[in-house]
Design brief:
This protein has nine helices and no strands. The protein has 257 residues and is an all-alpha fold.
Length: 257
């Protein structure tokens, strides 16, 4: 029982610390305190270093989604709406979520492990001794890099998913690429692209903040560093789905109460 209470308390404290870290990052960003060379370094880590799994997952997800929806829509003679169903579900929701989840697993966990290792080996304390703020040097460059790269990766994932959908529709159901793409264009509005980019930006903030916060609050040794990386991924995934629900509710729907 004591162990469970300690576990629950640890999660509450670390979540609260992540919220405080977000406020500090925002304040430091407005004050122009950052190391631009570190941003370039993390842009490479967050972008090209993660592009292969993002494209592979979204490409196959696009094919899988098209196969499942086309099979059902063709029964009702609605093959012309396959691209529309793809646009509404995959483009708006699946592509941003899948991309952010992959980035959380690869980039967010790396942030948590790197900063966690620095924390347990007292390198963070050494930065304070050198009068260097860890938020400026470690956190802010990572947050900016993720905010820039996750939306870009989401757009690449979206294009790859559409290509996968076109391939599956034409290969397995003889739906012409022109028909599929025309249906996507009719259902997907220009404002949807803005929403997709906004989701990518917000998910990028979540991945970076949670990864860095879990790293900074690591205590113990090598075992705790690994646990922090794992927990950072889990809490990032949970946060991504929760935030996506509210964003979809606010931006895409007009609920009546």
């Amino acid at each position: 029982m004591a162990t469970k209470n300690k576990f629950d308390k640890s999660w509450i404290v670390r979540c609260f610390a992540a919220i405080l870290l977000f406020g500090q990052v925002w304040l430091h960003f407005l004050q122009g305190k950052t190391y631009y060379r570190k941003i370039l370094q993390h842009l490479v880590t967050s972008g090209p270093g993660s592009i292969s799994p993002v494209l592979l997952v979204n490409g196959f997800a696009g094919m899988i989604f098209t196969i499942q929806t086309a099979r059902e829509l063709i029964r009702f003679g609605a093959e012309n709406a396959v691209g529309g169903a793809f646009a509404l579900a995959f483009c708006r929701e699946l592509a941003p979520i899948l991309t952010a989840s992959i980035m959380a697993g690869q980039v967010g966990s790396a942030f948590a492990a790197e900063i966690g290792a620095m924390q347990v080996t007292e390198q963070i304390d050494a930065l304070y001794m050198l009068k260097t703020d860890p938020i400026d040097y470690l956190v802010l460059p990572r947050v900016i890099a993720c905010c820039l790269m996750v939306p870009l990766m989401t757009i690449l994932a979206l294009v790859t998913g559409i290509i996968g959908g076109v391939f599956a529709a034409s290969k397995f159901y003889q739906i012409l690429p022109e028909t599929f793409l025309e249906s996507v264009r009719n259902f997907l509005e220009p404002s949807d692209l803005f929403i997709i980019l906004l989701k990518g930006f917000i998910f990028g903030v979540l991945v970076a903040i949670i990864g860095c916060s879990w790293g900074l609050t690591t205590k113990g040794g090598a075992k705790e560093v690994g646990e922090s990386a794992t927990k950072a991924v889990v809490i990032s995934w949970v946060s991504i789905f929760i935030i996506d629900f509210f964003l979809s509710l606010l931006l895409l729907e007009q609920p009546t109460f």
